Amino acid sequence: MGPRRLALLALLAVACESSTATQVVVVLHAEPKVREAAVELAVVVEGPDGIAVVDRVDPVARSNVGALARIPIVPAGEDASRTFRVVATLLDDDGAAIAELEVDAGYTKGELREVHAWFDDACMGVLDCGDGRTCVAGSCVGACHVAEAVGGERTAPECSPCERCVDVTCAPIDDGTPCGCEATDKCQAGACVTGRPIDGVFAGQLHTCAGVHGGDFFCWGGNRVGQLGHAVGSTTTPVRVDVGGWSAATAATDHTCVLDNGGGRKCWGWNGSGNLGIGTDERRRFDSPTEPPGPEAEWAEIASGWYHSCALLRGGQLACWGSNADGACAAPEDEGTVLTPRDVDARSNWTAVGAGGFHSCGLDRDGAMWCWGLNASGELGTGDNASRDAPVQTGCVAGACFEDWTALGLGSFHTCGIRADRSMWCWGGGLNGQLGVGPLDSDNALEPQRIDKGGWRAVDGGESHTCAIDEDRGLYCFGRNDDGQLGLGDVLRRDVPVRVGDATYIRVSAGRRHVCAIREDRTLWCWGRNDLGQLGLGFTTPEADPPIARPQRVCFPPD
User: Do residues 484 and 530 touch, judged by C-beta distance below 8 A?
Assistant: First the structure.
């Protein structure tokens, strides 16, 4: 080996017998599925001149314990300014590649450091990332790594999906390279730009819907009673619903409703409780968007509980329909169902509406909050457990009612609201920590409780969990987490807000036991329960498998 070449010691699966003062050990790992399929590991090590100084193939140990290989590398002449590249490939019993990874890194003078690189199960079959790029979690990213102190477990590449590693520097890609959702997303000036920006997301009990910028509307997940808007079974990826454009929508237990750009209303799914508001309680499924039989005023906003819906008219009136159990529709004269939208009261000063499991709330133009319906868990915030069949002012503490509410978000049996000072208050069922105020003296809070953290701008509640976005667009979740619905990578409940990663979000919708949220780049991410494909990821997650406990990107078909 000539003096101008990088001096490398590369030993696979063998402990290093000696070391130098300046050294990097590249430790290769594999997740269970890809390791099980692998028979051999091929490794190429290149110096800064691009010439391969190591090129070998070794058998893969059949044990799933420990690293695949440890590759000690030292620079010629202790020259810490040099760089190196490791390209590793897993081969099956036919000698065909099943997974590849690349590590581009440098040294720290006088120190022993490590890079821990992983073959991810999601990267099986991703073999064309290109020079200076590698696969992580199923997507290609730039392969620049920073070697870290000895003892780490995983080293993430430093570059984004639209960068490649050049001389251990992340260089932008601006050639339209596919990225993210490859059918729609392209690299522009180093950023992955989506071709299908998402404007709205609506998580139901067992299904989810979303609206794409430009008017397309999609649904996915459980479809037992037609809540996806078509007659086929459940789907694990977004399927287009022909609604002719949309401006607002809601997904409930077993039905879905959309408001079009002109303020018209279309609903579909199960109608057993008059859920669709089309003038009949005929107990059957409607597999396609169905309009009410007669003309209606123009709608502006809509929300749904388990079996009822409420909507705000553009003139400021508020109406509800569907199951009126415990007064959810504020129709005291009708104990059963409300078949067509019925005004909550005679006022026309409503500005916002929300619906929980069997209760509803609205904000008026003066900033007051009013709620009605079931109150067994204190979800109305009235200081008692008495249900109401007409709006009653809430958001009161010790008899003093706040009248500066700006946003609200209802869970199945709890309620949260945000005031003008950006403080957030929650009340109702709190057994699982979904109120976000820490341990409670009892299972329920009958009056609003203030969350310690401030600076909130949006909130939504699921069955027993809550998610909210703050002024810096950080997403926080709290409450029940046995299905990973908090997005924190585990199944531990939280009783105070915990941030979901470092990404920033503009909208969030909490389903029964799953959550979907739109990031600032207008991409959609979902996590939590996925037994019927309600996350839209192309697969279901059996109960015996680990839950989807971190945000995953949802991909939509091209135009």
Answer: no
